[in-house]
Amino acid sequence: VKMLNAYAADKGVKLMMHHETSGSVRNYERHMDKAYQFMVDNGYNAVKSGYVGDIIPRGEHHYGQWMNNHYLYAIQKAADYKVCVNAHEAVRPTGLCRTYPNLIGNESARGTEYEAFGGSKPFHTTLLPFTRLIGGPMDYTPGIFDTQLSFLPGEHSFVHTTLAKQLALYLTMYSPLQMAADLPESYERYMDAFQFIKDVAVDWDDSQYLEAEPGDYITVARKAKGTNNWFVGGITDENPRRSTFTLNFLDPGKQYVATLYADGKDADYEKNPTSYQITKGLVTAKTKMSAQLARSGGFALSLIEATPADIKALKKWK
Question: Of the listed 20, 29, 60, 113, which one is catalytic?
Fold first, then answer.
């Protein structure tokens, strides 16, 4: 463990733990103090807990009162050790993170893995902001660039999304603990698109919903915490559409470097999911933006406050 910690620190990486209980909840509770103390001793301040499988003891269920009491106990115990919890397979939250802000995220809905083998439809991610996310942050595990799963048949052989839509999920699916959920080699093939994942913030000072129709589409603008930088993400269901909006949430009189990651002209979530185009230019609060979204597509936009060098080097957005 010490060697791993030293290696991570050398790379500028902070480690977290994963407690997969496999549903053996009483056993987990017996070891919880020791596990959290281990985290404190080794500098880990966040844990992803999991409850895959039938709950033990038998007769208890994921959403029953007994398990609800356990989830609360785990969060309270973690708070004693100043540990953040990202619980998977737990009950849907209903605002508990306001009382216990160390509940940094939950899964508690059909996440990205269900987009292929589980058969989630393209409209699924346009509904979650109005249902699941009302109760608190969701760990949806976005960022899938390789959407083709040749080992599965038919409808389940691909993730129902374009690459650009995966970028947009970092905005539409709020979570202060985000993942880049694909393999490193998948990102290495599209490093220009991966730049957005490197740039995008995980927590925000302001959020504005620019357009939305539950089950059809949603476009969100968020201001990165402690900065003047904004990020925008828009997604759609199985129907293509054009998103048009004005950047009137930006500071008046300032210029920003806009980088738009959008579906390519031939993008399609079934036939050509990795087709995308990147456009860059200078914008202001008066600039009108437009992006074409493919079927189950999306777009992501970064708006970084311009430096004098940026203003000299870049052209104004058309």
Answer: 113
The reply to whether 113 falls in a domain is: no
Q: Of 108, 132, 161, which residue sits at a domain end? A: 108
Q: Tell me: the pLDDT tens digits for 48-80?
A: 999 999 999 999 999 999 999 999 999 999 999
| Confidence band for 23, pLDDT divided at 50, 70 and 90 | very high
| 89 classed as catalytic | no
Task: Verify that 78 and 133 share a domain, yes or no.
Answer: no
- Residue 273 and residue 149 in one domain: yes
CATH for 44 = 3.20.20.70
pLDDT on residue 152: 72
Dist CA 197 CA 181 (whole Å): 11
Structural domain that includes position 55: 1-108
Residue finishing a domain among 108, 129, 156 = 108
Q: What is the CA radius of gyration of the chain?
A: 21
- Tens of pLDDT, residue by residue over 180-211, are 999 999 999 999 999 999 999 999 999 999 99
